[in-house]
Specification:
- The chain is of the alpha/beta class.
- It has 24 helices and 24 strands.
- The strands form six sheets. A nine-stranded mixed β-sheet has the order 10-9-8-11-12-15-20-24-23, sandwiched between helices.
- Strand 8, helix 11 (316-326) and strand 9 (332-337) form a beta-alpha-beta unit.
- The radius of gyration is 37 Å and the shape is elongated.
Length: 710
């Protein structure tokens, strides 16, 4: 062994050197404590201390020193990182002091009794009391003083910043708020400092948490932001309902401060609540509607050990469907998409999270009947979630035949393949744009709904063989094109459609567009000041789709209660405020006019459809609208021929099939007056009894009109 290895082997770590220093200090501290106790007992005059007390004390010093070091080592007082000293260290110092003090009391008394020729059998009572207290504070003080100095230094460092950019307000004086406050005080990654706290509980007002004043309730937010020159607001109320949180955030966004909020309660339960747990407040936080709650047990039993096919599985809705299905133990999950990049992304994500899952990712188009039939023949899926569709309204207005080919005919081919190959359930992803459509995309989705209802009706009547093939073909062994024979058996496939509104954050949503425009400095473009839409989050939409698969009875259209409609203009202004800017001052808003095929408002159901309830009070069923199925199928065949032949006015052909379709150029766009009336009717349905949809009138006003502060 060379000199380097010897020196390395016996070299002490820094913490071990500190531990040696602490041992020396502790030996001095525990003995000085009892000496001072004796000194104080005799009026702080050394020459007044009787030798019969002082000599036993001196004899006991070595014994007591060794015993204290052993006890302190046993209680790990030399192994702790004292810059993070907390309640655990306090308990261990207290216990070790109690043990050593008890030993000292017994030991020094025995030493006194053993001394010959003295009339004293024990030390003065005050000696024990003062010695115990002095030892405790000296041993504890040196350890916690290090953390105290570090905290003072960090506070001083934060106070040096004179730009006021680090001044923050905390909303919520509960356990979550307290944890955030204490984490901020020791966090090195941020210089933010809490200057005041807001809480709606009057019992907490004019009181303090860690020296920070609780200055009032939500009505005092604006006043105190100005008073303390606040630049950032932390919202730490994870137990609040969506409506309560929305009301507070509607006030906060008027301050122009940067907003941070807790995602939910799970951080407190897990005990990992820190400043890094806070997230930027999103626009969906201002919608003020509780998220959909589905029966996960039902979904689990429905999906478990089944082969599931998701068409359009790389899109925003399709990929979230795959994520949630993957978490419910399917026998096999098949992702089918025409866009390889999206398919690759979701494939890599799921392979990493669920390495043992039987995952298949296939590329192809639902318009290719040979490809879609081959997939159904080879994999025999039990359930199909059909999310593949073109959905951009303006783009489809410029390419109407492509909307028909992909959305309508693609749905027909996929549904036919599902029926022929014994699929048990087929769930179509539809949209509220299918209700009284004014654009070809909405009309194509209404055609999809009618296709699903036609399949359901033919199966119910036992006339599956009357469903046309619509160019379903394959090549035979001789290399010539060979038509499929028509389906002759009886199908058990159940077909259902799920209809919902705009999805926040999805591809094509206005939110990503607005964010890009804000990042570029504006302007933010809104088509019309009165345009309104229903909104939901991607997880909510997928939860609805999965639940619909459980409830499915052929031919039904499921509809989500999405609350009150939201003004896009208000949505844009809220997003600008949440980004720390002032609308029409820092970021301009421009109105560009309605795009081709765009409506001022969307509807969830046609008036003649009616509604039925389901076990989930936020999910409803629209009764099928009767139509001549045979006539519809013959029209659909002609529509497909015209689309692929690239001939004729496709919109006129669609209007003959979908009698609720009125292209925007025919009767002109909806008026602002109609939009406001529709919005008022929607809000009225939420407080009246004319509809099973129920919500709060205040909620409807806050969501749809300009923000108000109570």
């Amino acid at each position: 062994m060379n000199k380097y290895e010897v020196s390395k082997r016996f070299r002490l770590e820094h913490w071990q050197v500190i531990a040696l220093y602490l041992m020396v200090y502790d030996i001095l501290a525990v003995n000085i404590s009892y000496f001072l106790a004796l000194w104080i007992r005799f009026d702080c005059r050394f020459n007044q201390i009787p030798q019969d007390y002082f000599i036993p004390y001196l004899k006991f010093v070595p014994i007591y020193s060794v015993f204290c070091i052993i006890v302190f080592w046993y209680f790990r007082l030399y192994n702790s990182i004292w810059r993070f000293a907390s309640y655990s260290e306090l308990i261990r110092v207290t216990l070790s002091s109690a043990v050593t003090s008890f030993f000292h009391t017994i030991g020094i008394t025995i030493v006194c009794r053993l001394k010959e020729g003295t009339s004293y059998s024990r030390m003065p009572f005050s000696y024990y009391c003062l010695g115990i207290l002095l030892q405790f504070f000296l041993v504890l003080g040196i350890r916690f003083s290090y953390r105290f100095l570090l905290l003072q230094r960090s506070h001083k460092g934060k106070e040096v910043d004179s730009s006021y950019s680090n001044r923050a307000m905390l909303i919520g004086a509960g356990s979550a708020g307290q944890m955030i406050l204490r984490d901020l005080s020791k966090a090195k990654e941020t210089s933010d400092k809490i200057y005041c706290i807001i809480d709606d509980n009057p019992n907490k007002w004019k009181r303090f948490i860690d020296g920070v004043p609780i200055v009032g309730g939500r009505d005092d937010i604006l006043k105190n932001v100005k008073k303390y020159r606040i630049k950032k607001i932390f919202v730490a109320i994870p137990s609040a309902t969506a409506e309560q949180k929305r009301d507070i955030l509607n006030i906060c966004k008027e301050t122009g401060c940067e907003l941070k909020s807790l995602p939910g309660m799970y951080q407190i339960v897990n005990g990992d609540l820190t400043v890094s747990s806070m997230k930027d407040v999103a626009v969906e936080d201002l919608l003020g509607r509780e998220p959909i709650v589905v029966n996960t047990a039902e979904i689990f039993q429905y999906v478990k050990n089944k082969t599931i096919l998701v068409t359009g599985g790389g899109g925003s809705i399709g990929s979230e469907l795959c994520r949630q299905i993957a978490g419910h133990n399917p026998k096999q999950l098949i992702i089918f998409d025409v866009y390889e990049n999206n398919a690759y992304d979701i494939q890599q994500e799921l392979k990493k999270k669920y390495p043992d899952m039987n995952l298949v990712v296939l590329i192809g188009s639902v318009r290719n009947s040979r490809r879609i039939n081959d997939i159904f023949e080879n994999y025999k899926p039990d359930v199909v979630y059909h999310a593949a569709a073109f959905k951009h309204v303006p783009l489809m207005e410029d390419s109407p035949r492509e909307a028909i080919k992909n959305n309508a005919i693609g749905t027909y081919k996929t549904a036919y393949a599902a029926m022929v190959n014994g699929c048990r359930k087929f769930v179509l992803i539809s949209t509220d744009k299918a209700v009284n459509p004014t654009n070809i995309m909405g009309a194509s989705k209404r055609l999809c709904e009618m296709i699903i209802q036609s399949f359901a009706r033919k199966i119910e009547e036992g006339k599956e063989n009357e469903l046309p093939l619509l160019h379903a073909y394959i090549y035979g062994e001789d290399g010539h094109e060979k038509n499929f024979s028509k389906f002759e058996g009886h199908s058990q496939t159940e077909f259902v459609a799920v209809r919902f509104g705009n999805v926040l954050g999805s591809n094509g949503s206005v939110i990503p567009l607005f964010r890009r425009q804000i990042a570029e400095g504006g302007p933010v473009t809104v088509t019309h000041p009165d345009i309104i839409r229903y909104f939901m989050t991607i997880p909510e939409a997928v939860s609805l789709v999965l639940q619909a698969g459980v409830y499915a009875k052929s031919g039904e259209i499921f509809v989500l209660d999405m609350g009150s409609p939201v003004k896009i203009d208000t949505l844009a202004r809220n997003l600008i405020k949440l980004s720390g800017y002032k609308p029409d001052v820092d970021i301009k808003i421009e109105y560009t006019g309605l795009r081709p095929g765009e409506k001022l408002y969307e509807e969830k159901l046609m008036a003649e459809e009616g509604m039925k309830t389901t076990p989930n009070h936020l999910i409803y069923i629209g009764s099928p609208i009767p139509f001549d199925t045979d006539h519809f199928l013959s029209q659909l065949k002609e529509l497909m021929r015209a689309s692929y032949a690239e001939e004729g006015d496709i919109r006129k052909l669609v209007t003959k099939i979908v009698n609720t379709y009125h292209p925007s150029g025919e009767e002109g766009p909806q008026t602002s007056k109609q939009a406001r009336r529709h919005m008022n009717e929607a809000a009225a349905r939420h407080i009246g009894r004319r509809s099973p949809f129920k919500a709060d009138w205040k909620s409807a006003n806050i969501n749809t009109m300009s923000p108000r502060i109570k």
